[in-house]
């Protein structure tokens, strides 16, 4: 059993190294993922921010959690793209013919997504600091916020894996991310849900982005997250588990 585990983790580290080399050889992918969220942050803070009433003195503090979720939703699209290319070029079949743990190939892509999205988040937070973002959160609150962002990344990455393994074209592999990128617009990410029409408000208050945004906002401001943190964790874990099961099913069909 121990040898089997070591075999899996060793193979996974090799696959992770392979995927990370692709990232470091084309760092423009990370910059590309950062550009749109940063542009949105600049637009909303400096153009629309004065007209939006959120009950806070610093709109960038209110806005940042939603921008981070948008960046993650955009970043995971590259996982679908790289998986699709591995499948189309026959690289996946070559790996399956080797004496390595089959699931290590998929986990290499997933963990690469986590690392690259963490890099993206750091860049966006640094830009937000230049724009006036300030946090009174302690170390534990920052760690809790980071943990939720990682769980959210894993949840969306497994959805991306399903798209990459099931798509027939490159366009189809990446198209899944568009609804995810725009989901924060129908949430409390940019404006309070109280200002929305009743039907839109009902949807906004009962979709995963709102609870995750509210939790991150509370943690980064050093305030108690209350019951929202448990709702956010339930959404992240629930989506991740369901997407993982469907992704592994799709992957095993390709490996058969």
TrEMBL record:
<dbReference type="Pfam" id="PF01061">
    <property type="entry name" value="ABC2_membrane"/>
</dbReference>
<dbReference type="InterPro" id="IPR000412">
    <property type="entry name" value="ABC_2_transport"/>
</dbReference>
<dbReference type="InterPro" id="IPR047817">
    <property type="entry name" value="ABC2_TM_bact-type"/>
</dbReference>
<comment type="similarity">
    <text>Belongs to the ABC-2 integral membrane protein family.</text>
</comment>
<protein>
    <recommendedName>
        <fullName>Transport permease protein</fullName>
    </recommendedName>
</protein>
<feature type="transmembrane region" description="Helical">
    <location>
        <begin position="60"/>
        <end position="84"/>
    </location>
</feature>
<keyword id="KW-0813">Transport</keyword>
<keyword id="KW-0812">Transmembrane</keyword>
<dbReference type="GO" id="GO:0043190">
    <property type="term" value="C:ATP-binding cassette (ABC) transporter complex"/>
</dbReference>
<feature type="transmembrane region" description="Helical">
    <location>
        <begin position="27"/>
        <end position="48"/>
    </location>
</feature>
<feature type="domain" description="ABC transmembrane type-2">
    <location>
        <begin position="28"/>
        <end position="254"/>
    </location>
</feature>
<feature type="transmembrane region" description="Helical">
    <location>
        <begin position="175"/>
        <end position="193"/>
    </location>
</feature>
<keyword id="KW-1003">Cell membrane</keyword>
<dbReference type="InterPro" id="IPR013525">
    <property type="entry name" value="ABC2_TM"/>
</dbReference>
<feature type="transmembrane region" description="Helical">
    <location>
        <begin position="139"/>
        <end position="163"/>
    </location>
</feature>
<keyword id="KW-1133">Transmembrane helix</keyword>
<dbReference type="GO" id="GO:0140359">
    <property type="term" value="F:ABC-type transporter activity"/>
</dbReference>
<keyword id="KW-0472">Membrane</keyword>
<feature type="transmembrane region" description="Helical">
    <location>
        <begin position="105"/>
        <end position="133"/>
    </location>
</feature>
<feature type="transmembrane region" description="Helical">
    <location>
        <begin position="229"/>
        <end position="247"/>
    </location>
</feature>
<dbReference type="InterPro" id="IPR051784">
    <property type="entry name" value="Nod_factor_ABC_transporter"/>
</dbReference>
